[in-house]
């Protein structure tokens, strides 16, 4: 396996792990299936700050 192939494989694994973790965290917070999917997509794109901020905003708006 070449060096670049190895890097691509590791990067893909990291992206998938971030996606899975974000989806599990969103589901644990009681998000709808659509919200869970969007959280996973945001995390996969690397926009985890937006995913965290979005989940906090959704949680606080449902509390008030």
Write the layout of secondary structure elements.
Layout: H1 3-28, H2 33-45, H3 48-63
Helix pairs in contact: 1-2, 2-3
Description:
The protein has 64 residues and is mostly helical. It has one domain (3-63). The chain contains 3 helices and no strands. It has helices at 3-28, 33-45, 48-63. The longest helix is centred in the N-terminal third of the chain and has 26 residues, at 3-28. The N and C termini lie far apart (54 Å). The mean pLDDT is 81.
Q: Key terms for this structure?
A:
64 residues; elongated; mainly alpha; single chain; 0% strand; 3 helices
Helix count from the secondary structure assignment: 3
Find the structural class using helix and strand composition.
mainly alpha
How much of the residues is beta strand, in percent? under 5%
Whole-angstrom Rg: 14 Å
Average pLDDT confidence is: 81
Give a count of the beta strands, DSSP E runs of length 2 or more. 0
How would the global form be characterised? elongated
